[in-house]
Amino acid sequence: xxTQMHAGAGLKLSLILGLAALLRFWGLGVxxxxxxxxxxxxxxxxxxxxxxxxxxxxDRGGAPMDYLVQHLFISNxxxxxxxTARLHAALFxxxxxxxxxxxxxxxxENQRWSLLSALLLxxxxxxxxxxxxxxxxxxxxxxxxxxxxxxxxxLKNSGRFVWVCFAAVSVLSFYTNAYTAIVLFVxxxxxxxxxxxxxxxxxxxxxxxxxxxxxxxxAAVAYIPWLRYSYFNAKGNAPPGNxxxxxxxxxxxxxDGSYPLAFALILCAVAGIYHLxxxxxxxEAGALLIWMxxxxxxxxxxxxxxxxxFSTRQLVFIVPALMMLAxxxxxxxxxxxxxxxxxxxxxxxxxSVVVIALHYPDRRDDQxxxxxxxxxxxxxxxxxxxxxxxxxLSFYFPDINKYSAENRPIESLLNAxxxxxxxxxxxxxxxxxxxxxxxxxxxxxxxETRFRGITIYSFSKPRWPAAAASEAD
Length: 473
Fold this sequence. Notes:
It is a single chain. Strands 1-2-4-3 form a four-stranded mixed sheet. The termini are far apart. The chain is about 65% helix and about 5% strand. By secondary structure, it is mainly alpha-helical. The relative contact order is 0.09. It contains 23 helices and four strands. The chain folds into two domains: about 5-360, no CATH class; about 365-470, no CATH class. It is elongated. A hairpin with a 2-residue loop joins strand 3 and strand 4. The longest helix is centred in the middle third of the chain and has 31 residues, at about 200-230.
């Protein structure tokens, strides 16, 4: 089936894509790199493929595709690292806005719903957030949309080329995020649901399901060489916790920290489901519901199995289903109420703009300034202790490992003849407060330099009691 587009729809879609690009590229390099972005950059910047893969293998559950793409951008595009490291994510975010239009159009053949879905995703803060972050989530959502486009297309035209494309995109998706396995399982549920609703001849339905399973297995087998890295190191320190609390956290996360936006989206999505059921579009309603709801318990089960924490970004691949249902519901409520002054879509967009604006200022820990301060001030005879952030600080201060003394007892540093100064970097990641009380006992008033979220204390040897007594003798 070809997705047809009227001239007016084409112009509107172009304007939406222009807005999506403006929102995603505006201020792309303003915010500091946060912890996970720095970790990815440290592993994506080696000059060799082997070096990159060895770095990605150290990440918990990491998959190499986004790292390789990021390497191409930071190696070939000039500009500040905060901009070049996120450029690919912004591009993928814009493409996702186009692709949600295509997916909605092939599923519903309704230009108004398709354009509205693209418009809501264009302004959606959660997607905007991860389109401005140098992590794999933007690429993973784009590939998820591609997989659902191919799946829905296969229900209309199940040719060989369609399934070859499906297998290829599945491989790319696996090497972007292992949760592709969950996406494929959800799609299998949708195929079964399609048969229950549409009652196709069983030979035709079984053939489609068999080909789907075969292509999925081909992609899974292609991922096995990397599975030994991503599985065994994707293990945390504690299970995710209470399921009800996590569900509330997920709801808030889908609003990018805004409960009003999350509840407004859910209200519109419920209205969309009601309208689809009322207009006898049971398959479409069920397919989007399965896409949106089924992954949550599966993700929780995986996280409990691996003692890993939960974050809403792990469910970024359900966003397109939520946007389409919200768009349909917003359109239905607008036409149902019939007032020219009432538009649920405009309300959603206004709330989204406010959330994006609230998140625009950079409030992240200033590791960049802290790292550059250390680079300019650390000298021979210094010992640096930076609990929880020494590895990420190495991005800005590559020589930090030469001065690192985190594995040495504080008492031995106080008495060491080769140490003239201890520099202690304190941050919110210093969970154990290792050694800082002992240092303050020795020197109650060290030199102090503050950055946003980080304090650097300099304990110079002449101030230590033992050193002062030795000099007096």
